Amino acid sequence: MLKRVWWGVAVVWLALFAGWAHAEDEAPDAMVKRLSNDVLDTIKADKSLRSGDLNKIIALVDNRIMPNVNFQRMTASAVGPAWRQATPEQQKALQDEFKTLLVRTYAGALAQVSDQTIAMKPLRAAPEDKEVLVRTEIKGRGDPIQLDYRLEKTPGQGTGWRIYNLNVLGVWLVENYRSQFGPQINAKGIDGLITMLVDLNKSNAAKKG
User: Fold this and answer.
1) Residue 109, helix vs strand vs coil
2) What is the pTM of this model?
3) What does the pLDDT look like over 103-157, one tens digit per residue?
4) Structural domain boundaries of the chain?
5) Is the backbone of residue 169 left (phi > 0), alpha (psi -120 to 50) or beta?
6) CATH class of the domain whose range is 2-208
7) What letter would DSSP give residue 121?
8) Is 83 helix (H, G, I), strand (E, B) or coil?
9) Backbone phi, psi, residue 165, to 5°
10) What contacts 66, CB < 8 A, 6 or more positions away?
Protein backbone atom coordinates (compact mmCIF):
# COMPACT_ATOMS: atom_id res chain seq x y z
CA MET A 1 0.00 0.00 0.00
CA LEU A 2 2.76 2.46 0.92
CA LYS A 3 4.53 1.94 -2.40
CA ARG A 4 1.28 2.63 -4.25
CA VAL A 5 0.78 5.87 -2.30
CA TRP A 6 4.34 6.95 -3.06
CA TRP A 7 3.87 6.14 -6.74
CA GLY A 8 0.66 8.13 -6.88
CA VAL A 9 2.21 11.18 -5.26
CA ALA A 10 5.26 10.91 -7.51
CA VAL A 11 3.07 11.13 -10.60
CA VAL A 12 1.13 14.03 -9.12
CA TRP A 13 4.26 15.98 -8.22
CA LEU A 14 5.89 15.52 -11.57
CA ALA A 15 2.63 16.60 -13.18
CA LEU A 16 2.60 19.72 -11.04
CA PHE A 17 6.21 20.48 -11.86
CA ALA A 18 5.92 19.88 -15.59
CA GLY A 19 4.56 23.35 -16.25
CA TRP A 20 3.27 23.24 -19.79
CA ALA A 21 1.80 26.61 -20.79
CA HIS A 22 -1.95 26.82 -20.38
CA ALA A 23 -4.70 29.21 -21.32
CA GLU A 24 -6.10 31.46 -18.65
CA ASP A 25 -9.66 30.38 -19.40
CA GLU A 26 -8.92 26.64 -19.36
CA ALA A 27 -11.32 24.73 -17.11
CA PRO A 28 -9.70 23.23 -13.99
CA ASP A 29 -10.58 19.63 -14.84
CA ALA A 30 -9.34 20.13 -18.41
CA MET A 31 -6.05 21.46 -17.06
CA VAL A 32 -5.62 18.51 -14.69
CA LYS A 33 -6.45 16.02 -17.45
CA ARG A 34 -3.98 17.60 -19.86
CA LEU A 35 -1.18 17.80 -17.31
CA SER A 36 -1.80 14.24 -16.12
CA ASN A 37 -1.76 12.79 -19.62
CA ASP A 38 1.30 14.83 -20.54
CA VAL A 39 3.25 13.69 -17.50
CA LEU A 40 2.40 10.02 -17.95
CA ASP A 41 3.50 10.22 -21.58
CA THR A 42 6.68 12.04 -20.54
CA ILE A 43 7.59 9.45 -17.91
CA LYS A 44 6.91 6.53 -20.24
CA ALA A 45 9.16 8.08 -22.89
CA ASP A 46 12.05 9.02 -20.57
CA LYS A 47 14.04 6.24 -18.93
CA SER A 48 15.93 8.68 -16.71
CA LEU A 49 12.69 9.93 -15.16
CA ARG A 50 11.46 6.38 -14.65
CA SER A 51 14.71 5.55 -12.89
CA GLY A 52 14.20 8.48 -10.50
CA ASP A 53 16.94 10.77 -11.88
CA LEU A 54 16.86 13.32 -9.06
CA ASN A 55 18.75 16.06 -10.89
CA LYS A 56 16.37 15.87 -13.83
CA ILE A 57 13.31 15.96 -11.58
CA ILE A 58 14.70 18.89 -9.58
CA ALA A 59 15.37 20.75 -12.82
CA LEU A 60 11.71 20.33 -13.78
CA VAL A 61 10.68 21.63 -10.37
CA ASP A 62 12.97 24.65 -10.45
CA ASN A 63 12.12 25.65 -14.01
CA ARG A 64 8.37 24.97 -14.20
CA ILE A 65 6.69 24.78 -10.79
CA MET A 66 5.36 28.29 -10.24
CA PRO A 67 2.91 28.55 -13.17
CA ASN A 68 0.92 25.54 -11.95
CA VAL A 69 1.11 25.40 -8.16
CA ASN A 70 0.62 27.88 -5.34
CA PHE A 71 3.51 26.36 -3.45
CA GLN A 72 3.63 29.16 -0.91
CA ARG A 73 0.04 28.42 0.08
CA MET A 74 0.79 24.70 0.13
CA THR A 75 3.79 25.19 2.42
CA ALA A 76 1.99 27.70 4.63
CA SER A 77 -0.94 25.32 5.08
CA ALA A 78 1.41 22.45 5.94
CA VAL A 79 3.20 24.59 8.54
CA GLY A 80 -0.06 25.88 10.02
CA PRO A 81 -0.60 29.02 12.16
CA ALA A 82 3.13 29.34 12.91
CA TRP A 83 3.69 30.37 9.27
CA ARG A 84 2.39 33.86 10.03
CA GLN A 85 5.04 34.35 12.71
CA ALA A 86 7.90 33.18 10.47
CA THR A 87 10.26 35.75 8.97
CA PRO A 88 10.56 36.02 5.19
CA GLU A 89 13.90 34.21 5.42
CA GLN A 90 12.33 31.38 7.44
CA GLN A 91 9.42 31.13 5.01
CA LYS A 92 11.81 30.82 2.06
CA ALA A 93 13.82 28.15 3.87
CA LEU A 94 10.64 26.22 4.66
CA GLN A 95 9.50 26.31 1.03
CA ASP A 96 12.93 25.23 -0.26
CA GLU A 97 13.32 22.36 2.20
CA PHE A 98 9.70 21.20 1.85
CA LYS A 99 10.05 21.07 -1.92
CA THR A 100 13.28 19.09 -1.62
CA LEU A 101 11.64 16.70 0.84
CA LEU A 102 8.74 15.99 -1.51
CA VAL A 103 10.94 15.50 -4.55
CA ARG A 104 13.47 13.27 -2.81
CA THR A 105 10.79 11.23 -1.06
CA TYR A 106 8.93 10.27 -4.21
CA ALA A 107 11.53 10.34 -6.98
CA GLY A 108 12.24 6.61 -6.80
CA ALA A 109 8.58 5.72 -7.17
CA LEU A 110 8.57 6.99 -10.77
CA ALA A 111 10.12 3.71 -11.87
CA GLN A 112 6.73 2.06 -11.37
CA VAL A 113 5.07 3.97 -14.21
CA SER A 114 4.11 1.59 -17.04
CA ASP A 115 0.70 1.40 -18.71
CA GLN A 116 -1.36 3.71 -16.49
CA THR A 117 -4.11 5.97 -17.80
CA ILE A 118 -6.08 8.85 -16.26
CA ALA A 119 -9.84 8.65 -15.66
CA MET A 120 -11.59 11.93 -14.85
CA LYS A 121 -14.62 12.09 -12.56
CA PRO A 122 -17.43 14.63 -13.12
CA LEU A 123 -16.57 18.14 -11.95
CA ARG A 124 -19.01 19.51 -9.41
CA ALA A 125 -18.49 23.26 -9.60
CA ALA A 126 -20.26 26.44 -10.61
CA PRO A 127 -18.76 28.80 -13.21
CA GLU A 128 -18.23 31.49 -10.54
CA ASP A 129 -16.37 29.22 -8.10
CA LYS A 130 -12.87 30.38 -7.19
CA GLU A 131 -11.84 27.08 -5.55
CA VAL A 132 -12.73 23.63 -6.86
CA LEU A 133 -12.08 19.94 -6.26
CA VAL A 134 -11.01 17.89 -9.30
CA ARG A 135 -11.27 14.13 -8.79
CA THR A 136 -9.36 11.58 -10.87
CA GLU A 137 -8.20 7.98 -10.84
CA ILE A 138 -5.06 6.44 -12.28
CA LYS A 139 -5.92 3.08 -13.79
CA GLY A 140 -3.51 0.32 -14.67
CA ARG A 141 -2.36 -2.87 -13.03
CA GLY A 142 -3.99 -3.42 -9.66
CA ASP A 143 -6.64 -1.26 -8.05
CA PRO A 144 -7.19 2.31 -9.29
CA ILE A 145 -5.24 5.03 -7.47
CA GLN A 146 -7.42 7.91 -6.27
CA LEU A 147 -5.90 11.33 -7.00
CA ASP A 148 -7.87 14.45 -6.10
CA TYR A 149 -6.71 18.04 -6.55
CA ARG A 150 -7.75 21.27 -4.85
CA LEU A 151 -7.31 24.26 -7.13
CA GLU A 152 -7.76 28.00 -6.79
CA LYS A 153 -8.48 30.56 -9.52
CA THR A 154 -5.82 33.24 -9.50
CA PRO A 155 -6.72 36.70 -10.82
CA GLY A 156 -4.79 38.71 -13.35
CA GLN A 157 -3.51 38.33 -16.88
CA GLY A 158 -1.43 35.24 -17.58
CA THR A 159 -2.78 33.27 -14.64
CA GLY A 160 -5.40 30.61 -14.24
CA TRP A 161 -6.04 27.62 -12.01
CA ARG A 162 -3.29 26.69 -9.57
CA ILE A 163 -3.08 23.57 -7.42
CA TYR A 164 -2.56 23.98 -3.68
CA ASN A 165 -3.34 20.54 -2.24
CA LEU A 166 -3.75 16.94 -3.40
CA ASN A 167 -5.24 13.72 -2.10
CA VAL A 168 -3.68 10.31 -2.71
CA LEU A 169 -5.79 7.29 -1.73
CA GLY A 170 -7.77 9.34 0.78
CA VAL A 171 -4.81 11.14 2.37
CA TRP A 172 -4.51 14.92 1.82
CA LEU A 173 -0.86 15.86 1.46
CA VAL A 174 -1.02 19.19 3.29
CA GLU A 175 -2.94 17.85 6.28
CA ASN A 176 -0.67 14.81 6.47
CA TYR A 177 2.45 16.94 6.72
CA ARG A 178 0.81 19.42 9.10
CA SER A 179 0.25 16.59 11.58
CA GLN A 180 3.98 15.77 11.35
CA PHE A 181 5.21 19.37 11.50
CA GLY A 182 2.99 20.51 14.37
CA PRO A 183 4.72 18.64 17.23
CA GLN A 184 8.14 19.81 16.01
CA ILE A 185 7.00 23.44 15.88
CA ASN A 186 5.46 23.17 19.35
CA ALA A 187 8.67 21.72 20.74
CA LYS A 188 11.36 23.72 18.93
CA GLY A 189 9.67 26.46 16.90
CA ILE A 190 10.07 27.33 13.22
CA ASP A 191 13.85 26.98 13.33
CA GLY A 192 13.40 23.53 14.80
CA LEU A 193 11.16 22.54 11.89
CA ILE A 194 13.66 23.90 9.37
CA THR A 195 16.43 21.92 11.05
CA MET A 196 14.29 18.78 10.98
CA LEU A 197 13.62 19.21 7.23
CA VAL A 198 17.29 19.86 6.51
CA ASP A 199 18.26 16.70 8.40
CA LEU A 200 15.60 14.65 6.62
CA ASN A 201 16.79 15.88 3.24
CA LYS A 202 20.42 15.10 4.09
CA SER A 203 19.39 11.61 5.20
CA ASN A 204 17.39 11.01 2.01
CA ALA A 205 20.29 12.30 -0.10
CA ALA A 206 22.69 9.92 1.64
CA LYS A 207 20.36 6.97 0.98
CA LYS A 208 20.07 7.98 -2.67
CA GLY A 209 23.83 8.13 -2.94
Assistant:
1) helix
2) 0.80
3) 776 665 555 667 788 899 999 999 889 999 999 998 887 788 888 999 999 876 4
4) 2-208
5) left
6) alpha beta
7) P
8) helix
9) -165, 160
10) 19
